[in-house]
Write a structure and sequence with these properties.
Layout (H helix, E strand, L loop, with lengths): L7 H6 L2 E2 L9 E2 L10 E3 L7 E3 H10 L6 E5 L12 E5 H10 L21 H12 L4 H8 L3 H8 L16
Helix pairs in contact: 5-6
Length: 171
């Protein structure tokens, strides 16, 4: 029997708490990727996942402009209030993070020494979050644009071996 999918917008809003955030933040209560950013599946596994704040921005403002990332005025990764979100180049996002003293390097040992690696530290953190939430290796590979064997090697700590870290604060 086929699984009946509820509309994305319905699933999204049931995971938003508009009453608990400081400064008018609408806090995401659903699944979170590393660093506290909310994530939600677009629908079927083949459709992948999206960060909750990016989806909120898109619903309020249209598609993310080319070359831009979605940033938070409020510096609260779990916030999905579209009035707190803005598009900016990644270089501006990193400069803002460093100005505010939030920039920390990835944990020791979390970098791949291969200069031709397709994934960076944040991509791998997303892969690990998706693995924790039960997404298949094949589905993750499709989502991040690498082979299934790359995801399997990450899952088995054959590449991008993760050091033991309690918490990491970034972005």
């Amino acid at each position: 029997m086929a699984r009946i999918l509820r509309p994305l917008e319905e699933r999204f809003w049931e995971k938003v708490d508009k009453s608990s955030g400081d400064n008018g933040c609408w806090l995401w209560t659903g699944a979170k990727a590393n660093y506290g950013y909310g994530v939600i599946g677009r629908g079927r596994r083949s459709e992948g996942i999206v960060r909750a704040h990016v989806l909120s921005y898109e619903w309020a403002n249209g598609p993310v402009p080319a070359g831009m990332v979605i940033c938070h005025h409020c510096d609260t990764p779990a916030c999905v209030n579209p009035y707190h979100l803005f598009a900016a180049p990644q270089t501006e996002n990193i400069a803002d993070m460093n100005r505010k003293g939030r920039g920390v390097p990835p944990p020791r040992g979390a970098r791949d020494d291969n200069p031709s690696a397709k994934l960076d530290f944040l991509d791998v953190a997303l892969v690990r979050t998706l693995l924790e939430h039960g997404m298949t290796h094949r589905g993750i590979a499709r989502e991040v644009g690498v082979s299934k064997s790359t995801i399997t090697r990450i899952a088995n700590n054959q590449t991008w071996a993760m050091p033991i870290v309690e918490t990491v604060t970034c972005l």
